């Protein structure tokens, strides 16, 4: 999945503000609240006994900031982290990651550090990584000190926030902090149309985008049938 | 194995190759409970992609029984997994460059040093993670079954593609770009105007179902092209380029190949082919991801002690201290117990991978190139795929060249003529000589043999509820794998649909049951 970035275009060509789409992946040990954070952010819900999400490749949430519309494509691990079997494909092309741990469980903080290392080695060098200390509502059972996590985050250039999917504390904030950071990270592409085209085989309509301000552009070059649209990214 | 798994599944899958992964996804998708494991700690088995460091994990099985971890039969009715028949063999790696960067003794101009820095093995290994080296490189026909399946099942969202941007061939000791679309034909400067007309006419007639071609039933495709009074160059382009055939290819097969090629033109780019970014090893992962999204349980790096049979049927898998039961067992053929594959013929695909310093045909724009090297002096057709950094399989400024052929003698022997004609194995003494040769320099090479099990009998000695999945075949696309996966799926779940469309994110309704309370 690529970032689709650009200005929404009306038929007469006038622009309407930017639209960006980002792939964000969640990482972290089982049961730290990854899915709960997404559910809180996307649906504003919390379930005490959250079952694994079945059938969702990823969830989407759109956020409007000033004149920019940001569409998050949020990927959950689908349980593949459980027996240490998360595929490298999972974080390919991700612009952002939230590494989640449970503040009441020191082991999950250790695992979070391993995930950060893995992302630094394997993922895109410009990926924005946020560390989320979840279950802040259980601060009385805290095993990971705030300062310890903050220091680690500072040393590794990570965003850091403690969250509670249960009370909704800081959940929206962490996503918005990522948007801010992404805004700074992305570079403005030059005209480089003589590069090899990159395709996503999508089966839904993608709006016509142009005049991108961000790093990657995807626009449909041809529409064959209702169910298949081919988008082409000339900037990569 | 410090894990505890649930003890009962509908299906257990061992191996994460393309066919196994499609079946895992298909079963999970229709609600079956699936345990999917691999003995390796990576996805893909013989379909995997590696970086420059991890590919050295591939080793020859010097001791022919090393893959059989235990004696063949542990106890009565318990079979060991793994065999010594279907392994990657003849594995060789070589650096063609010095270990450490040579001190530049010529260059006094320091401003140029950065650009001129020579590649060394040390420098290549620093970039190791930028490589994604396929064991089994594949291209997809734009209108082929595989792309169709990716789109119809909604798995397409997991992968990104690059289009093959040119097809070339070897003719009269030179590389030529094959004109394959109408625009190409007319912009090609090597083809005369009259040839252009003839070529268009033949291409059109091949695509026309009305055209009467019955007269050629017992002849070769080449006979047909000669009868069409095409020039030798055009015959070469159509025979070796567009229809990927040889002099002996029967007419019907040659026409079929050409049609498959022509049908996929114009959907995505200038050629009919797509290549998955970050390597072909991404695709099994995409199917595994779908399987996981629909509840499949995944565990890599697992070593089952064996499978337990009852009444000549698979009963359970012994993993750690657990006995995991399932109605069906699917295994990649390299995981198959010896007992299930007795008498299966051994065949191999010759493979080579080269890291080169430049493209076979230099160009301002980075190309993704496909080359069909025609049969020569008793050697088989060699398919070459040249990938640049835009495919996410090698660092900027380098190219990854895959060579694929039906194995005749050994990978090195089978590719010797191609490598000599197209590349420089040893750099010349002086830069001037290199310049005049104008061939890409080989920095690193790998040779190996992949077992070809696509035509093997994987049914006769296998229990009813066990299915063996073949490894990679010689076909460019995954058509054979899809057919095999569909066939096995039908044998297991006759009444269910194979990979129906997965819902879009917008269609997922969460917490529905709660709302009802």
TrEMBL record, chain A:
One of its GO terms (molecular function) is G protein activity. Its EC number is 3.6.5.2. It is found in: Early endosome. Its main location: other. GO terms for cellular component: early endosome. Belongs to the small GTPase superfamily. Rab family. This is small monomeric GTPase. It comes from Phaedon cochleariae (Mustard beetle). The lineage of its organism: Eukaryota, Metazoa, Ecdysozoa, Arthropoda, Hexapoda.
From TrEMBL, chain B:
Keywords: Cytoplasm, GTPase activation. The keyword Iron does not apply. Gene3D superfamilies: FAD/NAD(P)-binding domain (3.50.50.60), Guanine Nucleotide Dissociation Inhibitor, domain 1 (1.10.405.10), Guanine Nucleotide Dissociation Inhibitor, domain 2 (3.30.519.10). It is found in: Cytoplasm, Cytosol. It holds the Pfam family GDI. The keyword Cytoplasm applies. GO terms for molecular function: GDP-dissociation inhibitor activity; GTPase activator activity. Residues 349-473 form the RAE1/2 domain. InterPro entries: FAD/NAD-bd_sf (IPR036188), GDP_dissociation_inhibitor (IPR018203), Rab_escort (IPR001738), RAE1_2_domI_C (IPR054420). One of its GO terms (biological process) is small GTPase-mediated signal transduction. It comes from the Eukaryota. Signal peptide: none annotated. GO terms for cellular component: cytosol; nucleus; Rab-protein geranylgeranyltransferase complex. Belongs to the Rab GDI family. Substrate-binding subunit (component A) of the Rab geranylgeranyltransferase (GGTase) complex. Binds unprenylated Rab proteins and presents the substrate peptide to the catalytic component B. The component A is thought to be regenerated by transferring its prenylated Rab back to the donor membrane. This is Rab proteins geranylgeranyltransferase component A. It comes from Phaedon cochleariae.
